[in-house]
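sorry to bug you again but im stuck and you know this stuff better than me. what follows is a protein written twice so to speak, once as letters and once as structure tokens for the fold. id like you to explain what the token line says about the fold, in plain words if possible. anything you notice is useful, everything is just below.
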Amino acid sequence: MSMTSLDLVPLPKTMVPVICLDSWRILVIEDDLQLLPLISRAAQGIDPDLVIDWAVDRDGARSAMQESQYDAVLADYLLPGSKSGFTVHRDCRRLQPHSRFAMMSSMNIPIPDGCHGFLKKPFGIVGCREFLFDLLPGER
């Protein structure tokens, strides 16, 4: 198989995937998809390369934590498929022991040991951005 000069033409920029290996990665576990744009905008205000994965229930969260490593996990207290966010916290500690874990809820709940914070709903972009910034570990 011979190469021609056409084989050496680079792909247009829009077709070249951009992967930033030093980006933070957060797993958000929340069944209210209306929060996705708000949390995404808040995260992009911290770092445009920050990666957010989203799960809507405990099973989805477990699958995500088995497939990827996260710097931080933010979970709603009430989720389909779990008694409470505490079960998701236990899953996270088992599957992602080095990830920082935080919970969010509109209810006042006790925060489990090893939890890095609590985000009270409802929240705005600025409050969410500050919370996520504090949740993420160190510099990238």
About this structure: The domain at 23-135 is CATH 3.40.50.2300 (Rossmann fold). The first strand starts at residue 25 and ends at 29. Helices lie at 36-46, 58-67, 85-95, 125-135. Residues 36-46 form the longest helix (11 residues).
